Amino acid sequence: MTDAVTQSVTVPGENGLHLVPCSLIAQSASAFDCDVRISKGTHSVDAKNIFDLMSLNAGHGSELVLEAAGASARDAVDALVALFESGFNGHASRSAAQESH
């Protein structure tokens, strides 16, 4: 991607990128008019495709690189960083909290 915006993130939550976080990432990325990709090592996927995201097999603590190119690339990356930092709107810690009840 030329003129791409990139940023590294760490996967929160002990369950990593499971169905709910992948769904939230795809929904968020799809809201922007740009190409958005997420990479783990040499494996790069379309962030707007939930099945591609699941194929990353990104567990807790995995280092990922967000990369976007296009008109709203900066906004897309910022939104995804915020989503990771929020623990996917709290979903990253819910399963552990539910198990303790």
Task: List the main descriptive attributes of the protein structure presented here.
alpha+beta, 25% strand, 4-stranded antiparallel β-sheet, Histidine-containing Protein, Chain: A, globular, 4 helices, 101 residues
Would you kindly provide a written description of the structure presented here, covering whatever features stand out?
This protein has 101 residues and is α+β, with helices and mostly antiparallel strands. The chain has a single domain, classed as Histidine-containing Protein, Chain: A (2-Layer Sandwich). It contains 4 helices and 4 strands, in the order E-H-E-E-H-E-H-H. The protein has helices at 19-30, 50-54, 73-85, 91-99, and strands spanning 5-10, 34-40, 43-46, 63-70. A 4-stranded antiparallel beta sheet has the order 1-4-2-3. A hairpin with a 2-residue loop joins strand 2 (34-40) and strand 3. The longest helix has 13 residues, at 73-85. The protein is globular. The termini are far apart. The model is unreliable at 95-101 (pLDDT under 50).
